[in-house]
Amino acid sequence: MATEKIVIPQRIERGPTDILMALSGTVGFDPTAAHYKYHDDPYLIPLSNANKKTFALAQEAGRKAAHWIRQENAKLFQHREADPPVEAFVPTMVYSEDSQVETTDLQNLIDSVQVADAILVYGLLKKNGIEVDDGLKQQLLELLCFYNHEDTLPEEAIEERWFRHGTVGRERQRKTWKDFELAEDLFHGLETKRPEHYCALIRGMARYFQIEKAWGLYQETIEKGIELDTNTFNALLHIASFLKESYDKRWELVCEVMTAMKQQGVRPNLGTLNGILQTVTTIGGYNHPRTYALKTLSEFKRLGIEPSLASWYYVLIIFCRERGPVSHVLHDIMNEIEGKRFTVRDPKDVFFFVTAMDVCRNHLNDKELAKRVNQLLHHGDNYNLIGDSYKESIYYRHYFTLLATSEPLESFLETYHLLVPNVYIPEPSVMEDILRSVEMSVAVEHVPLLWSHMVQFDHTWRENLVSLLLNIMVTNRPSATDPKHADLDERFATIAWDAWKRQEERLESPRRAATNNASGISGSMLGDVLLLCSRANDYEKAVATFTKLNKERHNVIGEPRVDGLREFIGLCITNRTPSLAIQCLQYCSENGFPESVELGQQIYNAFTLDQNQIDKIKGLVGTEALKPLAAAVSETASKE
User: Among 52, 86, 178, 427, which is most exposed with the fewest C-beta within 10 angstroms?
Assistant: First the structure.
């Protein structure tokens, strides 16, 4: 019997979270569970976008406060949490103008990416006459150019990065490079400027949109015959659209840079492809940009360079323009990348999925293609490329809106229940589309659940949503014979009452008062509440609603629909309260409702009235309107 030989593999370097990732892979993604960063308690899990952000950032702020306390009081924390010590647990060195420093301190600060301290220590070294070798100066120059002389967010600030990127991305299209700072001083102070010095400064200036100086340095390298690396050429390609105004000149500039790369023997890479495509996105028209993009993709395919998601993002921008002809290029892209697993190879990779879903909704209106894009997003670890909280929200906004307007309601609600509220919380515009889908499908049995979600998601202050919800309940009366609708009248009345009370709380809130917005609740909303409470035979709530409508007319904007007043009079007849019915008739008459005569006749027939009440009705609807009724009553009495 042959014995199996055991081969011990070489040691594999593991990251600090590899074991956790392996365990997580055995469980899989559960969209019905809240994110692990929230407490696993129904009463503590945030259920609105604002609360989610507040909770996550507050939790991280607590950790930052703990780090700050330890940093400020380092002498009080002399114990060792681990042996060997963990660098992250050790307070950082504090430097001042009186500190005694060496070049090793500068090296450590560069390695730990402490930009402000590195600038200070370099100044101290220069002040004390300590020589810094060219290699260390090069590292410092690269650090300053990459971070633009500013400290960056620490890697531990995960939540701040997650909620911050969507708001700062738009700021990157303006010049933020710090002119005449240490980076430029370092560069100009070098006796012998090597190619890596030019590369670092050109890339930094291009990254922070100091366009003129970056291009000027590039021209200097051409004149002096200094060869640049691929990443520097890529940085120049990314700013080509800022250097030339006309579209033809931009493409000529791209060709000029590519020719320079060829002459220097520099091989292009993925960054080169994406730099060219980014410039093409800024070229107007339809035919030329598409031709340039296809030519570029073909050339790089011949070089064996595979596009990343950022490349396909640029292709979508080029082909699927808002006012251009319809393009189905996303179908071709999906055929190419469907079923693949992706990692971030370009910073713009995180823009692909949100742009693809935007194209599915606004450019093609194709729900099947949207489902394919969504399936690709959830394949493997591709969800890591969703970007940040802002892009995630925009992605699901497009996805939900498309499904809500094109899918059968029951099919859409399967997706809704799967992702809401732990993965996605619909914005008010999306909730409006969902309510309109319910209205079109006459699926009023879903209204109570949607109202409970509107309460959880802080949508009850949106008057347009509340009015739409009330209108759905009013115009689609539940069938008494349908078992699914057995208690909907009562539940609708409860929802309407809750909606009204929440509107009143909003109007009376201090923040509303501080805005000096004196507009009150709408008459149509109160009329709908009155109608729904009357249908449910909830006499007390109906009376309270009518009293508000009748006695506070100066705070009520607009008029209610007459159906609600008619239902209320019917409820008064059932409860034998003629005085309230006559008050309602008086309200109708004073507001000029043409149905006042009909309602007056209804009250006259339904009650045994005293003379004062009869005279009041006559005064409201006219004596002539009651004559036929009085004659009919007299004729009936004589026959008896």
Answer: 86
